[in-house]
Design brief:
The complex is a heterodimer of chains A (193) and B (428). With 193 residues, chain A is α+β, with helices and mostly antiparallel strands. Chain A has one domain: 2-Layer Sandwich (60s Ribosomal Protein L30, Chain: A). Chain A has seven helices and five strands, in the order αβαααβαβαβαβ. In chain B, 53% of the residues are buried. Chain B has two domains: 158 residues, TolB, N-terminal domain (Rossmann fold, 3-Layer(aba) Sandwich), CATH 3.40.50.10070; 261 residues, 6 Propeller (Neuraminidase), CATH 2.120.10. By secondary structure, chain B is of the alpha+beta class. In chain B, α2 packs parallel to α4. The chains are: A alpha+beta (193), B alpha+beta (428).
Amino acid sequence: MRKGVFGLAVVLCSGMLFVGGCAKEELVKKDEPVAPSQAPVAQPATQQAQVPTEPVQSQPVKDSTAVNGVVADSQTTVARAPEVKLQTVYFDFDSYVLTQASRDTLYNNAEYLLKKYNGTIQVEGHCDERGSDEYNLALGEKRAKSALNYLTTLGVPANRLSFISYGKEKPVDPGHDEAAWAKNRRAEFVITK
Amino acid sequence: MKRFLLLILVLAIAGMPATLFSQEEFIRVTAPGNKPLTLMVAPPVPMDSAPRDAIAREVTELFQFDLTLAGSFTVTTPTVTENRGIRPGEFSFAPWQNAGATLLIKSGYTVNGSTLILEFRLYDVIRERELLAKRYSGNIKELRRMAHTFSDDLLLIVTGERGPFTGKVAFVSKASGNKELYLMDYDGFNLQRLTQNGSINLNPDFSPSGRELIYTSYKKGNPDLYRRELFTGVEARTSSSRGINVTGSWSPDGKRIALALSKDGNSEIYLINRDGKQPTRLTNNPAIDVSPAWSPDGHQIAFVSDRLGKPQVFVMNADGSSVRRLTIEGAYNVSPRWSPKGDRIAYCRQQGDFQIHSINTDGSGDVQLTSQGSNEHPRWSPDGRFIVFSSTRDGRESIYVMRADGSGQIRVSRGKANDSHPTWSVRW
């Protein structure tokens, strides 16, 4: 039956298969590395995030030294003898509600921002590794905004505050237990100017 | 690009008689009883050049992998020693019949410098008939692509539905230390790096044509959505509103992108045009709304919301109306993805670890598909036969493939770093 159908369907594709050639890497200018808004904290056990005194730019920087900053060495950062004392606040699992301890911490941070430092701050929201990475991007932002909003109710001008969520992409403790998770569910305060 | 179009054209022409044919033969090619078809892969033979064992082995292993995964066959490398020609009349079916074969793939190759010619023929051993014959010519580097194309066509002939094996899988890997985007064949070969920005890159999603990718990157400081043409590398920042611009999902017609934005205060689902313009807000709820996933007809969108306390999968019309809860069981359900056939939605449930489930679109028929390690990010193959996902069952997170019913789970990414967030394109 149907001889032609059974016959050879020749596919002549001389030199046209292309897989390797077409999905070229990065024809566009290579991305500039983003300066780290905050290096990992060296002493997580104290539950205190110390930030460097030196300004950290939030915008992409031209400075080539920022390349190393992407995986910033926390010890280098700490060696800068920080003077700005803004403490990290922590959250319960899958929650962006401020605990009483968090409110106390934010009160101290607000005092500092009102009396001793008049630059701008970015609030970073972070999550532990357990939740979905997609959902955690939104949850991290809720955390950052909870902290930010509380600072504004304490009188810190909103125009000095910005926020960003890193979801679970930047854990401060790489561990896989409750102690590590508790340190990673946090909002950090990074000086931007 | 022209070469790409030419390839599609030629294959389409070649595929036409096969389609007509398959309508008729689909029913007839069945093994006695209910056993899976026994498909034998004869050793590929040299045609007009010297024997090349590496080529023969690669072709054989590729067919074994593709067609075993397909699930309709028991694939064996034959004990039959008959090794004569590959064309009808050049060999006898008797030894293959005696060996128990139902279907037989015969292959021949010719190497001429860097040019490779591969000829594949599929036979119905019982009826002693040729079912499909294709010849491919190209650079020797394209060997796998040629053979995957034949696997796709073979599935069309035998099952009535083309295979997805020529599609690409994009995914996120920490091979360089940070999360960058990579591209590979569905079976893990031909790894290519797509981004190199030293930042955090997340959530790749192919356009329906497979030629463009959207993803979220922190490379300019904020989690913004980017759209990249894979063949040219040209890229645009498609959405960079204040706050998150994440979990982008291309509409089935390629004209719109659903994503989660927080520009109006908290994470909500929006639609934007492919150029980022004309944002339309679909959800309006103080809770978190993320991870939109289109139904294949473009009429509905599944998404994740914690509006009732914990994250659950909801479904709404594509204009934001008629929101209903899909997942009832489980305290934490995320990452929905609608089957291209439209009948099932794959998603992820956290119960300690994450496990992948699939469920009917009316919320019935919930089935757990994975159980080893933590399994996340389910994405369907474009034909709906398979689900690609990430799993930690072997220690680090790697990319795996399984059939839609959860059978045949096998690792495909070979990297030594954590690989996650796979997404499977249509054929290239």
